[in-house]
Amino acid sequence: MEVLMRNMFQAIGKSRSANQLAKRYGLRFGASRFVAGETIKQSIEVVRKLNQSGRVVTLDHLGEFISTEAEAMESTEMCLRTLDAIAESGVQSNLSLKMTSLGLDIDKELCMSNMRRILDRAREYGNFVRIDMEDYAHCQVSLDIYRELRQTYDNVGIVIQAYLYRTEQDMKDLNELRANLRLVKGAYKESPKVAFPEKKDVDENYKKIIKMHLLNGNYTAVASHDENMIAFTKQLVQEHGIPNDRFEFQMLYGICEELQNRLVAEGYKVRVYVPYGIDWFGYFMRRLAERPANVWFVLKNMFK
Predict the structure, then answer these.
(1) Looking at the whole model, is its pTM more than 0.70?
(2) Is 203 an active-site residue?
(3) Which candidate, 28, 153, 238, 276, has a CA 20 to 30 Å from the CA of 120?
């Protein structure tokens, strides 16, 4: 049943018609737990409250299903406005983005141009931009673009997914760049031809790449709500004397709040991934697919 539900939500999340309906009716049925509103102003207020609790943030203006150059330019402008708002408000937040929202599927050079505009603005403010990794079809081109951008910018990082077979080699290749990586298990539905189908294998690979990146001396963002992975990371850094300023834990807005606060109280850096915007539906469906408990939360809100 859990697998069926996960597949269903992932399929619905890719539906253009469902996304259009979601835009029309807004953040209802529990989505506001995971999405910090539809406007920059609303998101900044959420960031401010998280900062007050000792947590830092990465803001993501949600945008999927970009099909025109005009939409890509609009998404780029929203990223720039988000960086402006972060600087003007003084909150502690980076920026996360998906390159498909900047026109990657339309034209690679269009995407590169938009990325440079965003990274230039972030550099003016002394801020950092994280490229979210998307599905397997976008993996290689995303890494290629990241490598090219790193020739000019040092304020950009990328995400690596533990469930892909190729990940260990990608990690070895990226080590020469001293890459700042967010390490995740992976949330997209992929073929067993390219990804580990069994959770235990994903978990083992996740531990392997966490250890590899930390022991190589690179800044590591361990993005997981899995307390076993968090405990593994804590033990690893203690055994090897890795200081707390060489890594951070990252979690999603609205999930495992108690765990986030506990880690802050223990002296660890916790960064919360906070999405906002009208294109929230695909993101929301992936959150439902990841954890069945999220589904029951939404159903309770619907009946309320």
Answers:
(1) yes
(2) no
(3) 276
